[in-house]
Amino acid sequence: MNEDTLKEFKCFLRERYGRKNTVITYYDGISNFARYIQKPLNTVTKEELVNWKQQLQDIKKQNTVRAYCYSVN
């Protein structure tokens, strides 16, 4: 299910933003989250999002964390 959702999201990003780097960054963010959560994206809780963000802050730069979180919201 997440694969189909990710494909749809990538198409949405291309239509909405068009810029290659923006599409790549936002797609990387949601893909990272999907790998982390390993369950249908429409069942995610706020607590799971917070835990993911905390984990990201340990390994990614602040701007990357911000962009990834924006892509998931």
Automatic annotation (TrEMBL):
InterPro entries: Integrase_recombinase_N. Keywords: DNA-binding. GO terms for molecular function: DNA binding. This is Core-binding (CB) domain-containing protein. It comes from marine sediment metagenome. The lineage of its organism: unclassified sequences, metagenomes, ecological metagenomes.
